Amino acid sequence: MNGRGFRQHLYYAALWLVALFFFAPVAWIVLSSFKTREQILAVPPKLIFVPTLANYTDLLSRQGLLLQVFNSIFLSVVAVCVAVVVSFLAAFCFSRFKPKGTDFLMFLLLSIRMLPGPAVILPVYLMYAGFGWKDNHFWLVMFYAMFSIPFSVWILKGFLDGVSVRFDETGLVNGGSWFHVIFRVVMPQVKPGLIAAFIFNMIFVWNEFLFNFIIGGVSTQNIPYALAVGTYSDGGVNWTFIASMTTIYVIPPILFIYFFQKYLLVGMTFGTVRGEV
Amino acid sequence: MAEINIDGVTKRFGTFTAVQDMDIRFADGEVACLLGPSGCGKTTLMRMIAGLEHPTSGRILFGDRDVTALPTHARNVGMVFQYPVMYPTLSVAENIALPLKQDRSLSAAERDLRVAEMLDVLDMREHGGSFIDELDSGNRQKVAVGRAIARRSDIVLFDEPTTNVEVNAKLQLIRAIKTVIQRTRQTIVYVTHDQTEAMTLADRIALMYGGKIIQYDRPDVLYNQPLTEFGGWFLGNPGMNFVPATVANGQISAPILAEPLPAPANLPSQGAIKIGIRPEWIAMHDTPQPGSVEGTLADQTVGIAGRYLTRVSFGDVDVKVKTDGRPPAPIGGRVHLVPRRGRITLYADGNRLA
């Protein structure tokens, strides 16, 4: 056994420890969803127990559960699709046609993204209330899309800048329209960027509670809304509900990140890893 | 009909004039090379034909069709760029097929046929399924050539396609381009600063300098009878000799002429001119010959195929001479030169007189 091998093992042990530490709460909540209320609150915590599906059957019998799950999926998928399409075209324009004030507009876009939600919640609420847009799927999608666009434009502009203009020119000269150039020639080359933008925004909308609670309503309630409202609905803290609902809630993001992790890494470099032509 | 007619075209970028009031016709089905040093406006002219730049003034016509205001994709031209542009997400065959998909009149079978045919011509059949990472720059550029040609547009433009290709792949690429253009009846405009390439490929060469076309002629005419000193100097390796000469009483005399030449009628009766003669049109001997002049061998270098490039000095005038074998005298020795009479051309103020 040499020193380097030992160090390597130590290194991995430390990584495992950190990973487990951060994963512990997730594991706790997932395990708890298979326990009874007494088992959840038992001190010391019960590690060996007979799993029960009672929490899930309870959950399924709750009113509005399907609506909440549907809303969560619908709002995030539709809003992010709208955002990615708009952002891609906007980023293409910024990258290729460089309209006057591009740099300033890009700065403005990023600063919108930096703005904390609670800072704008009041004006947004007044606007939505005034126009009668509250509790409406379409307008909530529009809001989420608007909130997702700045960041997506930033990611995608980085990727598009990495695709040489020579591809555009080649496409145009070989008889293609701009439509052809944008969607057949350039878009396939920024697919990692599109996927990265999609995932980042998906996670944002999926986790979004504040705006759903304030400018949404009964018909647009999503899972975070359900968690917040359902936790205290029967007096005390409803631990079995929290555990089972959260477990369902975290499955989609975990699957998503598992399957698309390489694109997330690409996205975090903002497309700065570029191919050359 | 795909004759290209450049009608009084000027292109300025800010204060810089890239192309100046140009008039030229590239005939239907011909291969025209735009040849000239960097910055002479040849790429700008080509980009204007493609529609990637728009002329500041003047018109561009394809046959009778005025295309000056048409966008690029409506012009029906193909183009190969300086950099090998191959779509990285598509295979070689898909790259060639992509522009064909624009043409809705083309059936899928016909499209596949054209792609297969193009891969054959380019000698890339076994690469049809390859992706960009598996190809060298020469083969990538071949893909670009195939993609531009397979559409069978009326006009195909090449913008220095061999510049960014490795030396080894370059010859192969030029051969492929030559094969491809010999098979098509497309009008081809080929930009290059490499005269060998231009000589190999062109039906006619347009020699450009400073945003203007100096001469537009067949390669042999351009080489043998350049209209300007610049043309003589730019073509050939090394370029033409320009030996100072004087005209007096209808006679031309110069250090490399054993006896004065009768001056053609259009020459000024008095004054200084230059004699143009290419290094390979001067014979070198170790003994005096009829019509020879004596000079000192000042320098020699070995060239291709056993040819020597030498410099022979006549006092303050140096003349470049190419010899087939080793020069007959050592450096510093005396040699006797005989210029071929019929090859002599005369210049004044940079332009040819006779």
TrEMBL record, chain A:
Keyword Cell inner membrane listed: no
Gene3D superfamilies: MetI-like
Transmembrane segments: 12-31, 69-92, 104-126, 138-156, 239-260
GO biological process, one term: transmembrane transport
One GO location term (cellular component): plasma membrane
Origin: domain of life: Bacteria
One Pfam match: BPD_transp_1
Keyword Transport: yes
Chain ranges of the ABC transmembrane type-1 domain: 69-260
Entry's localization field: Cell membrane
Protein family: Belongs to the binding-protein-dependent transport system permease family.
Identification of the protein by name: Carbohydrate ABC transporter permease
UniProtKB/TrEMBL annotation, chain B:
A GO term for molecular function: ATP binding
InterPro entries: AAA+_ATPase, ABC_transporter-like_ATP-bd, ABC_transpr_FbpC, ABC_transpr_MalK/UgpC-like, Mo/tungstate-bd_C_term_dom, OB_MalK-like, P-loop_NTPase
Key words, A-Z: ATP-binding, Cell membrane, Membrane, Nucleotide-binding, Transport
Domain ABC transporter positions: 4-235
Domain of life of the native organism: Bacteria
GO CC entries: ATP-binding cassette (ABC) transporter complex, substrate-binding subunit-containing
Coiled coil: none
Similarity comment text for this entry: Belongs to the ABC transporter superfamily.
Protein name per Swiss-Prot or TrEMBL: ABC transporter ATP-binding protein
Organism: Lichenifustis flavocetrariae
